Amino acid sequence: MELKIDRPPRTAMEVFRLLPEGTLCEVIENQLYMAPPPNEPHQKISFRLLLQLGNFITDKDLGEVRHSPYGVYLNEENAVEPDIFFVLKRNCGIIHKDGLHGAPDLIIEILSPSNKKHDTITKKLLYERFGVKEYWIVNPETREVIGYELVKGRYSEIAKAIGKLNSRLLDHEFSF
Prior knowledge:
Blueprint: H1 12-18, E1 25-28, E2 31-34, H2 40-60, E3 63-67, E4 72-75, E5 78-80, E6 84-88, E7 95-96, E8 99-101, E9 106-110, H3 116-129, E10 134-138, E11 144-151, E12 154-162, E13 164-167, E14 172-175
Parallel strand pairs: 4-8, 9-10
Antiparallel strand pairs: 1-2, 3-6, 4-5, 6-9, 7-8, 10-11, 11-12, 13-14
């Protein structure tokens, strides 16, 4: 969504909305976070998971899957670009022309050398607070996958594996 203002931007979200399409940037608690483009191991795993997840969700007509760059507006101070996310069919009303407004049901983040703490701490706490039902973190260097499920408003670790993601929400295992 293009934002035009006749004064300097006052919030990080206003700056974010002025950035050119495709800029790798997020806003968390009204603070901008920028990142370099993903590396080859990141992209390889992202593609494999997206392909499997997308085919599975489409075949079963479960909802919608998207991948970065794609704006996920959790509220007016938090806009993220998860590597991959899924929205259940019954929740697809939160998908709008300018991005997703609300919390996806499942998010997958693939670590990059420059963002490990960002994904494992900052974004994990953010996703927990906004009610993302499942959160998966993939380390492309070790192929380790850690999954969390939201239980009574808190994340509980549900799985740790190498090269596979076993979603409870989707009742399916995805390998890479």
